[in-house]
From TrEMBL, chain A:
<protein>
    <submittedName>
        <fullName>Fumarate hydratase</fullName>
    </submittedName>
</protein>
<feature type="domain" description="Fe-S hydro-lyase tartrate dehydratase beta-type catalytic">
    <location>
        <begin position="2"/>
        <end position="170"/>
    </location>
</feature>
<dbReference type="InterPro" id="IPR036660">
    <property type="entry name" value="Fe-S_hydroAse_TtdB_cat_sf"/>
</dbReference>
<dbReference type="GO" id="GO:0016836">
    <property type="term" value="F:hydro-lyase activity"/>
</dbReference>
<comment type="similarity">
    <text>Belongs to the class-I fumarase family.</text>
</comment>
<dbReference type="InterPro" id="IPR004647">
    <property type="entry name" value="Fe-S_hydro-lyase_TtdB-typ_cat"/>
</dbReference>
<keyword id="KW-0456">Lyase</keyword>
<dbReference type="Pfam" id="PF05683">
    <property type="entry name" value="Fumerase_C"/>
</dbReference>
TrEMBL record, chain B:
<keyword id="KW-0479">Metal-binding</keyword>
<feature type="domain" description="Fe-S hydro-lyase tartrate dehydratase alpha-type catalytic">
    <location>
        <begin position="4"/>
        <end position="269"/>
    </location>
</feature>
<dbReference type="InterPro" id="IPR004646">
    <property type="entry name" value="Fe-S_hydro-lyase_TtdA-typ_cat"/>
</dbReference>
<keyword id="KW-0456">Lyase</keyword>
<dbReference type="GO" id="GO:0046872">
    <property type="term" value="F:metal ion binding"/>
</dbReference>
<dbReference type="GO" id="GO:0016829">
    <property type="term" value="F:lyase activity"/>
</dbReference>
<protein>
    <submittedName>
        <fullName>Fumarate hydratase</fullName>
    </submittedName>
</protein>
<dbReference type="GO" id="GO:0051539">
    <property type="term" value="F:4 iron, 4 sulfur cluster binding"/>
</dbReference>
<comment type="similarity">
    <text>Belongs to the class-I fumarase family.</text>
</comment>
Amino acid sequence: MAVKLRTPLSTEDVLRLKAGDVVYLSEEIVTARDSAHRRILSLPKEELPFSPEGAVIYHCGPVVRKTWEGYEVVSAGPTTSARMNRYLDGVLDLGVRGIIGKGGMKAEPFRGRAVYFSFTGGAGSLAAKSIKRVKAAHWLDLGIPEALWVLEVEDFPLIVAIDAHGNSLYR
Amino acid sequence: MIGAIVEAIRLAVTRIPDDVVSALKKAYEREENGVARFNLENILRAIEIGKAEAIPVCQDTGTLTFFVKAGLDSPFLGEIERAIVEATRLATKEIPLRPNAVDVLTGKNSGDNTGRGVPVIHWELTEGDEIEIAVLPKGGGSENCSALAMLTPGEGWEGVKRFVVERVKACGGRPCPPVVLGIGVGGGADYSLLLAKKALLRRVGERNPDERIAEIEGELLEEINALGIGPMGMGGRTTALDVKIEVAHRHPASFPVGLIVQCWANRRAFLRIKPDGRVDIWQ
């Protein structure tokens, strides 16, 4: 099945998806890697620079270029999600309903509440085509790759690799 | 010279070498699994976009690693190291590259891909008056799957195969398969890993000139593809594009095996500096 979805995602959106589905995702996603996850979990929910309810977190450290208006994403493929396994329960508890990454994660925490989307590792130049603009950049003190980039995407082509019903495509 | 090194870095991160592209196309043609085809198609499209727009194909532009073959009679010997560091700084800003050098104690990013010990430069002194530099931008996701095994001599080559296959299996989709494996056998713990990394400079499809080693490369490739891990770990026929083995003599008591895992983006570029200052760049 192929579906178009917009963030924030509702629980119904998530429960409808099955491992193997293709999803074209639009609206807002936020990037976070190891250090950003640690910071997200160290702050009270109301102090986060994005709303975690229904949010989609992208495991990505982009290449960005500074422009007159702000920033432009040049290349932005997914990073290895397994490193973020230790923070998974924490961010899903905040209301995050989707994770985008590569390589897969523990399937159990997703059950009943969230999905894991896979995008092709290394295809950073292609992913950048789906990114319409950088809405905001937070936590630049963590460095460009680890900062929290709030991105607007349009029809980002993803595969549901782990669904909310305990199914996973990974072997 | 600095400008030429920047151009070689640009070539390495924005263009995937032809031998790698044709191996990926072959993998796409023989693939039947739909998800695997989705991933391989994305890879081939990303390669086209990188080339057409001169932007990094993968956002992880890696730790820049340089292998320098330095002719002792080159007039540029004394400048090379500084030129490489300066070119790395410039390339980070101009191309741009992702800043990937972080202080191990504070976690602070240097912002320009330089820092203590990086970019990594491996020196080899040779005869003659030319300098040849190989640029290998090495991504972190695949590097995290690299490993060293100190086998007992009794385990021998069967042990090498078992170690490599088990490691690839354990890593699954994490290193961005289809991977290229660099394997170094012998020479001690340190040298086996260096040989393994150097092996990644060889063209995909090109076998070790020693027929016995070439045969083991082929057998390993077949065994790994039989695992069915597939592109990005979600199943498929191609888990590895190639296996490269380099060897050195070993101590009678040890059997070191260095394994460097390289993602499908087996990026590289070369440049040769002639004594009159002219430079050739190729991939």
